[in-house]
Each structure stands twice: as C-alpha cells, then as structure tokens.
Amino acid sequence: MIKVGIVGGTGYTGVELLRLLSQHPEVELAAITSRKEAGMPVADMYPSLRGRVALSFCDPADAALSSCDVVFFATPHGVAMAQARELLAAGVRVIDLAADFRLKDTAEFERWYAMPHSCPDLLAEAVYGLPEVNRDAIRKARLIGLPGCYPTSVQLGLLPLLEPVAGDLIDVDTLIADCKSGVSGAGRKAEVHTLLAEASDNFKAYGVSGHRHLPEIVQGLGAIAGRPVRLAFTPHLVPMIRGIHSTLYARIRPGAGDTDFQALYERRYADEPFVDVMPAGSTPETRSVRASNMVRIAVHRPQGGDLLVILVVEDNLVKGASGQGVQVMNLMLGLPETLGLTQLPVLP
Amino acid sequence: MIKVGIVGGTGYTGVELLRLLSQHPEVELAAITSRKEAGMPVADMYPSLRGRVALSFCDPADAALSSCDVVFFATPHGVAMAQARELLAAGVRVIDLAADFRLKDTAEFERWYAMPHSCPDLLAEAVYGLPEVNRDAIRKARLIGLPGCYPTSVQLGLLPLLEPVAGDLIDVDTLIADCKSGVSGAGRKAEVHTLLAEASDNFKAYGVSGHRHLPEIVQGLGAIAGRPVRLAFTPHLVPMIRGIHSTLYARIRPGAGDTDFQALYERRYADEPFVDVMPAGSTPETRSVRASNMVRIAVHRPQGGDLLVILVVEDNLVKGASGQGVQVMNLMLGLPETLGLTQLPVLP
Amino acid sequence: MIKVGIVGGTGYTGVELLRLLSQHPEVELAAITSRKEAGMPVADMYPSLRGRVALSFCDPADAALSSCDVVFFATPHGVAMAQARELLAAGVRVIDLAADFRLKDTAEFERWYAMPHSCPDLLAEAVYGLPEVNRDAIRKARLIGLPGCYPTSVQLGLLPLLEPVAGDLIDVDTLIADCKSGVSGAGRKAEVHTLLAEASDNFKAYGVSGHRHLPEIVQGLGAIAGRPVRLAFTPHLVPMIRGIHSTLYARIRPGAGDTDFQALYERRYADEPFVDVMPAGSTPETRSVRASNMVRIAVHRPQGGDLLVILVVEDNLVKGASGQGVQVMNLMLGLPETLGLTQLPVLP
Amino acid sequence: MIKVGIVGGTGYTGVELLRLLSQHPEVELAAITSRKEAGMPVADMYPSLRGRVALSFCDPADAALSSCDVVFFATPHGVAMAQARELLAAGVRVIDLAADFRLKDTAEFERWYAMPHSCPDLLAEAVYGLPEVNRDAIRKARLIGLPGCYPTSVQLGLLPLLEPVAGDLIDVDTLIADCKSGVSGAGRKAEVHTLLAEASDNFKAYGVSGHRHLPEIVQGLGAIAGRPVRLAFTPHLVPMIRGIHSTLYARIRPGAGDTDFQALYERRYADEPFVDVMPAGSTPETRSVRASNMVRIAVHRPQGGDLLVILVVEDNLVKGASGQGVQVMNLMLGLPETLGLTQLPVLP
C-alpha cells in the first residue's frame, strides 16, 4: 500500500482528495493536516465520510509526512514551496494543487501571486502535471505543479490545434477562452460574493482585466505550440456547485480550411483514458462529467466558416484538481493510470 | 414628505428597505448609516439601485437621525436598544427589525440573546409590530419591535384558530411549526454554511434543540390566545434566496370537529390587505409572494381527520422584515396602510 | 457473472440502476428496454455513460429477459404486474421499483392507483424490499415490491420506536411525517411544474390531502409495530435534484420519558451497513448521502419535552430506489449485501 | 385609459406583460386570450396575481380585440402574422413578441422558422422595436416586431462601436457574442431538457451551429453599421430563472487604438433611460437588473490590447421581451417612455 499524506485538507480539493483516495485500492491515507482544525475527526467536518475515513486532522508539526510515499498540498499558494524541499529530501514525492510550481518564470509568479518565490531551483525541476501533455516527464518526476482548473480545460480544448505536428491550422494570436465555472472553484472560504443568496439565480463575469490562470494558460499553450500564443480569457461564475464549461474560439488559417477537425481531435485523443471527443454536433453538459475525472470535448465550425468553436466540460474538483492529482500520482508510482478514477459521473 | 433614516443598511433587510422606501411616494430617504462602509455610495454595493438612490453610507456619528421622522434599525441585536432612547427623546419614531424589542420578558431576552437588556422601560412601552394583531397599538406607538420572519408566518397561520372569539378549537399544547426558509434569512454575512457550494442542492434542519424565534412565537401565540401555548418549532434551510414556507400542525379538539375552518380563515382575513386565504385544497408556493408584502395561507384537514395542516408562505425579506416595517411605518404616520407596498410578486 | 435486465430504463431510476450496476463487480448488464427509444444507444441519452455502457435500448419484445437472473422494472405503475408472472415462471427474480407489489390490500392499491390489480396471488407472495425490516424474507424471495422513496425514509426513521421489543414508547396515533424531496423524485417527465423556471427559487407542499405513499407508510409502520398506526404525511418539493429529508414527530408516552432514545437508535442500527445514527444534536444534510446508499438519522428531543423530532436523510434515487434495489438483489443472490454500493457520497 | 389586449397569455412573456401592465397607471387590461385555458381565471394559473388581476383567459374568438388600442401577441411564431391585418384595419396597434415581424427578408424568415410568411407587405411596414435604435420610427408605427431577448442585449452592447458616426473603430467581420441565458428564455413549455433535475447544477451551450437569433442580430447590427457584419453567436443555458449575460468580443482596428471606449459608451447612452453604462472595471451581474427594464453594460479592454470585451446584462423577460413591449407601447401612444417601468430590480 502507498502511504499518502495531505497537507491542508479542509478545503474542497482536500475533501475531494479524501473521497478519491479513500476509495483507491492501493492507497493508505496516512495523515491529513490542518493547523486550525487539529484534533477534529475529518468526518465531523465532512459527514459524507462518516464510517469510512477514521483520520483526524493533525497539526502539520505532528504529521509524519516524511514517511509518506506521496504528499499532496491542498493549501493556499505559498505553502508548498516552503515545505517541499524537506519532503523531497526525505524521498517523498510532492504534488502541489496550488500555484507554487506552475509558472516557470518567477517574475511572472511574483507579479500574479504577489509573493516572492522561495525555491526557483525546485521550480525548475518541477513538472507541470498535465498527463495528456507531459505523461513521460510526470512518470519520472519528484515534484509536480498541478494545473489549475481553467487551464486544464483550455489546454485540453486547444491542444490538437496547436501541436506542431498538426500543421499551421489556426491563428495563434486571436484565441479566446470564454470560461464558466461553478462556485466550488472559489473554494470553501467564507466570502459574501459566493453566498447562495448572492450567487444563485445570478450570472456574472469576473477577473476580466486579468486572472491568475491567464499566464498559466498562455505558458502551457505556448509550450504545446512551440511558439508564443495570445489569448483572451474571460472567466464567469455559474450558479452551480461543480463544473467548468470552456467555450473556445480559434480562427482557422487561410490554408487550413480543408482540415477535418473532428477527425483531428478524435485521433489525438483516441488513447487518452480521460478525454472523450463527442460526435460532431454535440453540446457537452457539465453534469455529464460530474464527480468524475472525464473531460468531454465537442468541435464546432458554425456555418462552415473560418471560426472554430470548441466546447470543453470538466469537473473542476476532479479533472480540474484532485482527480488529476490522483492520475498524476498513479503515473509517478507506476500504477495503472486510471486506478481509483473509474467511477461513473453522477447524473442527474 | 416623511424623512426616513436607516441604521445599518448593508444587510439584506437594509437593501430591501432601500428598495421599498425609495419607491414610496411619501418618503424621502434622509440617511443610511454603516460604520464600516462610511463614504461608499449605496449603489456601489447594490448596483440594482444605480441611478435611483444617490445616498452614500455615512458614519452613525454623522447621520442627522434625530431630525428624521422615522428611523429603522436594520442592525444586529443590541444596537437599537442602545440608541432608541435618544431618538425617541427627539421625537423620532423607531422601528427595530432586530430582536431588541420583541421579547417582553427581559430574562427570556437575556437567555436567548446572551446579552443584558439595557432599557426595560422602553421594552415595556414597545409595541410588537404585527399589524394583523396589534394594528391600533401600532398606530399610537413611538417604538416598534418588528416580528421575526418565522414568527410572522407562524402567528398569521395560527391566529384564527387561537383567538378566544373563535372558541376552543384546537389543542394548544401540541402545536407544531415545521418551517422552511430561504438562505437570505441568514443575512449577508460571510459564513461557510451558507455558501452556494454548501447550501445549494442540499436541505437540512437547524436549531432543532432551540431557536431564538421559538420564545417569540410562543409569546405571540400566547398573547393571541390569552393563555399559554406549547409549540415545537423546527426550522430548515431551503436552497433558494427568498421565501418562508411554514407547515403548521394543530389538533382539533373533540368538540370542534364540525367547524368550517376554511370559512373561519376567510372571515378572519377578509379585510386584511396583505393576507390572502387561498381556496380550499390549495398549496401556496413561496414564489407567489416573491418580492411582495403578501402572505398566502391554505387550510387543510387531510382525510377529514382531527389534524389541521396550515400552509403559509411569505417573503422573509418583505412581510417577514422590511415590508412589514414599511406597513408599520404607514400605520404610525397615518398613511394608507398599503402605500408603497402594492408591487406585484415577481413570478417566474 | 449475474445477468441483469432492466425494463424501462429511460427514467431516473433506470439511469441510476445503470450507473450502479455497470460498476457492480458481479453483474453483466444483459438488456435494457424502452419501447419508445428502441435502437438508441443508452449513452446517447445519458452521455455520462459514454465509453462505459455499450448497450442500446431494445424493444421489450426483443429483450431476452427470460434468460436473465434478475430483472428490474423501472417502469410506470402497472407494467410489472403484467409481465412478472412469465418471468417468474422462467426462473427470473423480479424487483419492481414501482408500486405494483407494495400495497398488500388490493382494494387499497386500486383506490390509490386507479387501476385493478391483475395478479393478487403474486402480490401475496411478493416481499416488501426493505432490508432493515425484511432481510430474511428478501433472501428467499422471487418477487420484490421495492419501497417508495418517502416510505423508506419514514420507516427507517420510526422503526426503532415502533418495534414491540422496544416497549410502548410513543403514541402511535399522532405521528407526523413532514417530508421534503428533491425534484428528481418526480421523475424524468416533461411537466410544467417541475421546470427549472417553475421549481427553482421556490418551495411548496403538494399532495397534502392524500399522497400515494401514505398507505404504504401506514402499512409498513403497522407491520413493524404489530398494530395499526395513524400518521399525517405532508410532502414538499425542494429546489434541488436529489435528496429526501424527513422530519418526523412522535409523542413520547407518559411512562416512557426516561428512555435513552439516542442509545435505542444506535443499538438498533449498529449492524446495519447503510444506516448511520449520527451523534446527539446533529442535523443531517441531504448532501451527506448524495449519490450513495446511506441513510443518516438524528434523534432530537427539544427542551427535554415529550416530543421526539427525528431527522432522516437519504438519496431518493439510491437508498430511495435504485440503490435499495441493488442491495435487495445482492441479498436475493447470496452476494455480500454491500457489493457495488460502497461509493462515497459526493460532497460538495 | 388605454385598452390593452394580450393574445396568448399563458407563457412567461404573457404573465410578465400582466405583471407590468396591471401596474401601469394608464392601462386597462381588456382581454387576455388562451384557446386552451379559456374560462380559467388568470390568477388560478398565476397565484401571484390573486386579488389584483380579475380577468379570465378567453377564447380568441370571443375577445373584443378590435376595440383595444393596443394588442400584444405573446404567442408562438406564426400567430401574429395571421391576425395582424384585421386588427390593424380596425385601427389597433399591434406589438408582436414573437418573430413574425423581425426578419425583413422573408426568405431568411422561412429558412429559420420553417414556415412561409403570410404577409410580406405588413412585414415591410413593421418597425423593429428597439427604442435605442428606432425611437422615432416606433413613435409612428402601427405594427412592431419586438426584438428577441439575445438580440436586444447584443445590439445594445455593440451599438456604440458600430454606428458610422463613431468612425471605423472595430473589425466588423470577427465579432463574437458568447451569450448566457436563464431558463425562462425557453418558455413555459413542458420539456425534459429544462426540468430542474436536468438543467440545475449544470451548464451547456446549445444551438452552436445556428440559432434563430443569429440572423436577427446580424440584420440589426448591419442596419446600425450601414454595412454587413459577421458575427459568431454561441448561446448557453444557465441554471437560473431570469437574466441574460452577453460577453461580446470585438477587435479594435489598427487606427482606432487611442479611442476612449468608456467615454464613447457613456456619451452614447447618456440620455437613454434604460441603459446604464457602469464605471470602468465593472462586472455587471444579471441580478442587478432582475425584474426591471434596465440594461447594464461594462466596457473592458484587457491588458490594453486590441480586443474589447463588452459585458451586457438584461432581464430576458423584461428588457428582453415584455418590458421592452411596454416601453414601445408608451412610445407609440405618446406616453412618457418610462411609464410603468420604473420598478427597482429585486436584489437579492
């Protein structure tokens, strides 16, 4: 059995890790930390785990994290980079669900997250944990910066269009990602704007002038394309709990009009266990992946014009966070990639 | 024009007062206070008021409240009783939407609200602002303790059964009020349990062992009945914004089985502008009173047995709080009771 | 592997059976019928099953149901009783999720369901599929009438109080079940009153004068108590997808005031795999059992009075329907009772 | 008093007309028709109108529509064009909320609505009822084709950029309208995909390959710009009742980079009573216009690049339908444009 620790388990990605890992056939949950809730049984905070998860939150100082095989950080930005070095030195693999190891450029990191980066050497070593792009590197990695929820869906949606092998298909300077997220994406923080009485029966954009996921998306797409891309990113808040729907717009380049984009996507993702390219004409629903690690994608070219409209749905807490974390863990440890991740979506 | 001040206008009952009062033909909004948001235009916090309410929040110290005709307190418990005496001395009428002037027994108040009552003499003078019960007293009052949202619906639902004039119809020792409230009833406070991601697609009871509205309901029903009553009160949280649905259970006394309860209710409320007794067999919906001051009631006697099931719907922010406040203000000032309160419910 | 057929798989209990059975380690899905959708791949209607359920709906006439080990009926009332005899004759075990085999009194059945009962002999043989009450009989049964969603929660909530072994604890003539259900309980039928624009941000009671689950509840409680009981049942519609919350009221009999009701419940359910008695003072949430077969119960005695308030939550599509069906199937086939039913609830 | 008739009043735009017109100081509701519900009091279907609207639905054949001053058609496409001629001949002004008089090109109409157009001459005469564009023509019109809900928000959002007077500011060939609508936009029809259990906690696009509002938007923008425009339109379904949020993307032309777009919008809409240009940096919420005739717009230029992102919110049933109908009626009759339309949005 693999011993797993979770640092900062009181938030939504923490409880989702608990849900997935406690049902994973090869995992033993060794410790879950919370400075604030130390001593409280996990199942007191999350009654859904009653009778199934016997752990209590423990103080980070008391957690035997260094004897774990893998430690997940489900913490605010800045925590993982303060603790990763010691764990890595003890031979522990580290997977950070926050942003500490996503942006390769420390200046970018410091600009968007308003804190200095404390370990640029580890950042250089860290692998960006998007299996559909970096599977081999993930297998060999000690330290993972797990993608953000929006970046996962946008990158998977545009990937087949941007890879050099596909040819010069689209204009990489006018990409648009109009994204919509359920409220769990904002985390389990007491804030007014995500109260049910504020956010339900309501819809709005936010972060239009600049959202932290923008540089991550641009970095990721640039790495895929092998050249710089420009993208506008508009996130919106949807009155639902889970789910991200990304509506992506890309202009077809003059010479690429004859491409069979449906076939391109189907071919690219034929062997991916968690990416489902839907039949032409489909409009995927977020609930079709609710509580599962699947991503579903549909490719549209309205009226046969020069604009592609790509629709992508994921569960922001699973493929957008904790499920992807488990997928990455499986890869790092040489386990079957889908182990513990095959539960069907919950619909309705 | 009547000059009106609002103390503590940043919460939901505050903004609802603003919505109603700014459309009231006889009211001039003179001041709205918020220590924390002093200086901020009201319409910055509530864009729904843009172009229509020009006021800014002001510091309580700077508000010319003593020159108002009426001051509403839409504040936490304990604020109104600290400021009422001075305002009353200046000839201002005071309407408290919190609990300071609801419970006549200061010991009860102190037990349920965990603070001493600072002005028992004013409490003795204060009138409980439920027009359907206390209309005449309200007309002459200087100081009003406005009923809570649950208590309004429960009292209006049981009133016709309990008034001595109706005879000895029901067992007053086994009353049950199973009540369901939208989340706005919890106020505009940053709390985890009322986040959309926690409270939507979910249902639960709370305060089962004792809720602050219980002593208020029991006091009110006892006053109506002229004798003590016993009632069990179970509040529940509904994943919706506005609305209270009270399901009330009362046992018919052996001798009262022939009563025409439908007729009793219709007769009792025939002249009430804000209470609608629906036809026999109806099941009122909360949305049928959304954003309006109406209460709708249906009277059921399943299978002709000895149990009455009374269904009551109200908008907790209107008839359950701010709308009732305006209704009471109209009465205190000799205005037509329905002035500014005739807007139709918003459906769907 | 056990061969399982589903008759009428297009509704919510049908798709929930698919979700559970396709993940059940001992089950092979052999056929799913739908006269209307014959030929359509199941995953076209329910994209959540894409890549995991390869079946298409087939015409009932073409389904090799008689070669199945078990057939579930997820059909409207009246279908199962027309087809059960032939299947039973072929040695197939039959589990009906509708009402054909619930009410033992055919006159009652005909009164509430407005159709004659076509096979009273089978009705007499049929076992009421509530494992916590009838486990041994279920093990030996060929034909199961599965409990309704409300009746499951009400019976599990009152069971420990009513069993003769517990003594004469409560007044069995004044029971009240105030129940609240998510909208999936109304099924996947195109109807105006369950549209999102009608049912969301709204709350109402329905069926107050008489709901079909009332005679089933009364029959079940009477069987448990060994004597007639009287109960008032008020169902309500909650703006959420899944979940039932039953708030149950029972009067403690004069001599029973010293009973430790918390201990009574804990003892009674100590060995039940799907019933969780929560700690004293708890208020269970429907989401704590979302998408799982668990029921959670809390026992309250407000202010130490003579009224018990029992709170019960279940997922109406799982323990209230399809999950209970799988639990019953496991029992009938001698499999471990929890097989295929151990997935954790999805929260948030 | 103005006598008003409504044809087809059982849908959401019908009941919204009733809500607005019954509170309009100059209107007398003369008749409301519904073949199917003839004889039923309007308030039986819509309890929100109890005590306030005494009308019953009447059969179209019995309605004295020709003696009305104005008749609204809140009917399916195709009804208004069959009845308009007779009403116009009787001197009645006609406002159609459906699509019969929107598309000027009958071939376009027939292609998108799959029915022949029965009165091209009236179509030629009909005025497109968007006051911010056609105010003078509306004042003189006998027959109005009222804009669709999406087209209203998209046209108001792009109008200042496209009017020739503004200069050649944006690329008119690459416009994108990514729009999100509440479910009431689908009407009060019994359909599976808009059930609460299907559409809540869910998000999806629809009509991506072609939606009926696309030709209307393109026609309207082309008329505003005085030249053809090209636009991609992606509608999405939001799990809320009311509200449309349009996120509009427009590329700034090379020579127009110095334009002060915020000032352009503020200037253009300075005198419009129902269009509110919010301060720079704002992200308007749909609830900020809930149940009101207001539109709120925010203008963004992320990172000072060459892409404008315009955010527009409206209530699809008010400014997107019935409220705009009343606004147009006021103009046609020479009444103050805002009469009966000044109610504040309902928030929360």
From TrEMBL, chains A, B, C, D:
Give any Gene Ontology cellular component. cytoplasm
Active site feature: 149
Which PROSITE patterns does this chain map to?
A: ARGC
**Can you name one GO molecular function term for this protein?**
N-acetyl-gamma-glutamyl-phosphate reductase activity
Which InterPro entries has this protein been placed in? AGPR (IPR050085), AGPR_AS (IPR023013), AGPR_dimerisation_dom (IPR058924), AGPR_type-1 (IPR000706), NAD(P)-bd_dom_sf (IPR036291), Semialdehyde_DH_NAD-bd (IPR000534)
- Chief subcellular location equals cytoplasm
Give the record's pathway: Amino-acid biosynthesis; L-arginine biosynthesis; N(2)-acetyl-L-ornithine from L-glutamate: step 3/4
Q: Which domain of life is it from?
A: Bacteria
Domain Semialdehyde dehydrogenase NAD-binding, which positions? 3-141
Question: What Pfam families is this protein classified in?
Answer: Semialdhyde_dh, Semialdhyde_dhC_1
Keyword terms, alphabetized:
Amino-acid biosynthesis, Arginine biosynthesis, Cytoplasm, NADP, Oxidoreductase
Q: Which PANTHER family match?
A: N-ACETYL-GAMMA-GLUTAMYL-PHOSPHATE REDUCTASE, CHLOROPLASTIC-RELATED (PTHR32338:SF10), N-ACETYL-GAMMA-GLUTAMYL-PHOSPHATE REDUCTASE, CHLOROPLASTIC-RELATED-RELATED (PTHR32338)
User: What NCBIfam families does the annotation carry?
Assistant: argC
Record protein name field: N-acetyl-gamma-glutamyl-phosphate reductase
What species is this protein from?
A: Quisquiliibacterium transsilvanicum
